[in-house]
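Run log, item B.
One chain of 189 residues. Sequence copied directly from the ordering sheet:
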Amino acid sequence: MAILPIITFPDKILRKKARKIKTIDSSIKRLSYDMVDTMNDAGGIGLAANQVGVLKRLIVVQLPEEEPRIYVNPEIIYREGSRMVEEGCLSVPGFIGTVERSIWVKFRALNLESKTVRIKADSLLAQVLEHEVDHLNGILYMDHLEDHEKLRPISSEEYSSTIRPDQGSNLNDDLAKFHTHSQSEIQPS
C-alpha cells in the first residue's frame, strides 16, 4: 500500500463536508488500506479521508494493541455525558488542547463488506470516533476548545512520541490567527 500526504491546517479541505460513499468498490478499499498505512506511519490512532485530500465519508481507527478498523459513512447517532480530554490531531501537528467529549457514544457505519456495524463506545474509542466523524463534517478539534488560546505546543519529546513531525511545516502563524476562523467557514461540498 501507499503512504499518503496528510493535509494540515489551514488547508480549506479540512473545513469541507465529506460526501457519502454510494458503492464500496476497489478504489474505496485501496484508499482505506492506504489510510491505515498513512495513519500508522504518522503515529496516529485515527484518520479521516479528508485529511488525505479525499472528500469521502471514510475513517480508519487503530487503538493501541488492536487491529485497524475501517468505517464507511460513519455517524454518531447518540452521545451521553461529558468529560474534558487532551486531544491532538495529525492535521495540526505539534499542538494539543483540552476539549469536551462525550463519556460514551452510539456509532453506526458500514464495513468494507457493506455490512452495518453498530458500536457503543466509551473512553478512547468514543473520543476517536467523535474526532474522526467531526473531520468528515469539516470540524477540527480546535473548534471545541473553550478558549482558542488553550491550544498549546507540545514539547519535542511529546511530539516525536505522539505524532511524526511534519518536515519543515510551521503552523504557529496560522494557529495564532485561528480565532478569526469560525464555524460559518465550513463549506458543504
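Observations after the first pass:
- The CA atoms of residues 32 and 70 lie 7 Å apart.
- Residues 159-189 have pLDDT under 50 and may be disordered.
Flagged for discussion on Thursday.
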